[in-house]
Design a protein that fits this description.
Helices cover 31% and strands 25% of the residues. Strands 1, 2, 3, 4, 5, 6, 8, 9, 10, 11 and 12 form an 11-stranded mixed β-sheet that branches. The protein has a single domain (18-222), classed as Beta Polymerase, domain 2 (2-Layer Sandwich), CATH 3.30.460. The protein has helices at 18-35, 44-51, 72-81, 151-159, 172-187, 192-196, 204-208; strands spanning 39-42, 61-66, 85-89, 94-99, 102-112, 115-118, 120-123, 126-130, 139-141, 144-148, 200-202, 218-219. It is α+β, with helices and mostly antiparallel strands.
Length: 229
């Protein structure tokens, strides 16, 4: 397994095939169960899993995994034994998997005293939120068990994209997702303000790239929403 940044192509990603993605989701579940490293799906596929059906094409799976760096050799061996191609971007602690047309990137997740830390840029960027927001029990997605990050997390991530990337340009599918998760939050009777107040982020990566606003940790409630609510 290369312990280095994998070569990135500038070409658009080909859509993940449905059957390959289901197989990769099964791999994530089985390996997570065997190692004690649970994996949660977030972003695009999380909505599909919540609805129990494939809603659109996706370029890859977005995943964070509990205590992934502490179990990296064991995880890599387990995935490769299942025929999965692995690579590791050491700078950002990103484990990449490929099975056929399906791809995923796995970030580390750490839990301390009920708080989840999602290390989305390795040691250079983290998001902190309540661990209880994450699925505790698997959902059935077309016969495959899967955990998702949860409504509160997705709402914050989708409406406060600058919490993880100030350079991101929202796309039409991001607006659709923000609308979906805002409605899902309303169904739960949750307060947007209360949810936002429980998330904070620290991203020195962007400060070192010349953005002075990221020198200090920030609460999600302090970050402007690009989405008209």
């Amino acid at each position: 397994m290369p312990i280095d940044r994998p070569e990135e192509s500038s070409a658009p990603k080909k859509p993940c095939g449905k059957q390959d993605t289901l197989a990769l989701l099964r791999d994530l579940w089985d390996v997570g169960e065997a190692t004690g490293c649970k994996a949660w799906i977030w972003a695009g596929w999380a909505q599909d899993i919540r609805e129990g059906r494939v809603l659109r094409e996706h370029g890859d799976l977005d995943v964070f995994m509990l205590n992934m760096p502490d179990h990296l050799p064991e995880l890599v061996a387990a995935f490769e034994a299942r025929g999965i191609k692995t690579s590791f971007w050491n700078e950002f602690l990103l484990l990449k998997l490929e099975r056929g047309t399906a791809r995923c990137g796995i970030n580390p997740l750490i839990e301390r005293h009920g708080i989840a830390e999602w290390k989305h840029i390795g040691d250079q960027g983290s998001v902190f939120f309540p661990f209880e927001w994450l699925d505790a029990q698997p959902r059935d997605f077309l016969g495959v068990p899967a955990l998702i990050a949860g409504t509160e997390f997705e709402y914050v991530f989708r409406t406060r994209i600058a919490a993880t990337n100030p350079d991101w340009t929202p796309r039409p599918k991001d607006r659709q997702a923000a609308t979906y998760w805002r409605a899902a939050l309303a169904e739960r009777g949750a307060s947007c303000e209360e949810v936002l107040s429980r998330v904070w982020t620290y991203n020195p990566f962007f400060f070192h790239r010349g953005n002075p606003a990221y020198y200090w940790p920030m609460r999600a409630a302090e970050i402007a929403s690009w989405y008209d609510e």
